[in-house]
Specification:
The protein has helices at residues 18-29, 42-52, 56-72, 80-90, 98-107, 140-147, 175-180, 204-225, 257-275, and strands at residues 6-10, 36-40, 120-126, 131-135, 157-159, 162-166, 185-189, 232-235. It has 281 residues and is of the alpha/beta class.
């Protein structure tokens, strides 16, 4: 008898996405492997690595990539002067997308989505159609770049005749896509922000961050409430203590990458052990 399809659903969340690496490692160590991987933004990046080679060894290599990013400032590195220069020149964003493209070129083992070992899709927001767009074929690097093009931080990514921004704008934790594609068991890898209280913004730049966070949480809550009765979803823990105030939304703070990986690994191990046979694929 064939087991129901298992999906790994990897949400967006910037540097907090390091925790997803620890979750992936715990899942694979427990013998849980995906039939489908869907991801958004940093979840698209982590998911692409996993779909290329769904092994514990891949998660260890990915953790090493994250640690190196923490040492050199990550894909959003650069001095204030460099960021201001990019903003003045582009008039739309603070960071060059070259470092992210180089990261993907250096570490992704395949060039096309069709060549991945596990079926993989990632989402981006199409500007012209004001709609979510799912990449299931074509250039893997372009698809991940589009899914991770955070508004105001990175330039929109042009693919064909359309331009794309971060998938978190339309589907930040894409459980609905996994269900649409037939998955019956979902392992939801989220970065820990959905259950933490927001605070009223006190600075101009915090207003947009809070507004975006409200939208992403509302979509996730609605999708979880609408899950069919025959679908089981496991929302995996990050192991993080709740940060205070707006700290959870800081996009350049890479100082705790290694700790996030290890905390999420330990917390997910404990979750799987406590759930026992209930989480068997």
């Amino acid at each position: 008898m064939t087991s129901p399809p298992v999906a790994f659903v990897l949400g967006g969340g910037g540097v907090l996405g390091a925790g997803e690496v620890g979750m992936l490692r715990a899942l694979l160590e427990a013998g849980i492997t995906p039939d489908l991987v869907v991801g958004t933004s940093v979840g698209a990046l982590n998911g692409a690595f996993l779909a290329a080679d769904p092994t514990v060894e891949t998660t260890l290599r990915l953790a090493d990539v994250w640690r190196r990013l923490s040492e050199d400032g990550g894909v959003f590195s650069g001095s204030l002067a460099e960021r201001m220069s990019t903003a003045v020149r582009s008039r739309t964003h603070l960071h060059r997308r070259g470092p992210l493209r180089q990261l993907l070129a250096d570490h992704l083992p395949v060039e096309r989505i069709e060549d991945l070992q596990v079926p993989f899709q990632c989402v981006a927001a199409c500007i012209e159609r004001a709609a979510e767009h799912w990449f299931d074929s074509g250039s893997l690097t372009d698809a991940v770049m589009a899914s991770a093009a955070v508004p105001g931080l990175l330039a929109p990514v042009r693919i064909g005749d359309e331009h794309y921004l971060d998938g978190g704008l339309v589907n930040s934790i894409p459980v609905s896509r996994a269900v649409q594609l037939g998955a019956k068991t979902l392992y939801v890898l989220q970065v820990g922000r959905v259950d933490r209280p927001l605070t009223v913004p006190t600075r101009p730049w915090e207003v947009a961050l809070v507004a975006f966070e409200i939208a992403r949480r509302h979509r996730f809550a609605a999708d979880m409430a609408a899950l069919p009765d025959d679908v089981v979803a496991h929302v995996l823990p990050t192991g993080d203590d709740a940060p205070q105030g707006m700290a959870q939304l800081r996009y350049r703070d890479v100082r705790q990458v290694s700790q996030r990986v290890e905390r999420a690994h330990a917390a997910t191990q404990a979750y799987l052990a406590a759930a026992g046979s209930a989480v068997a694929p």
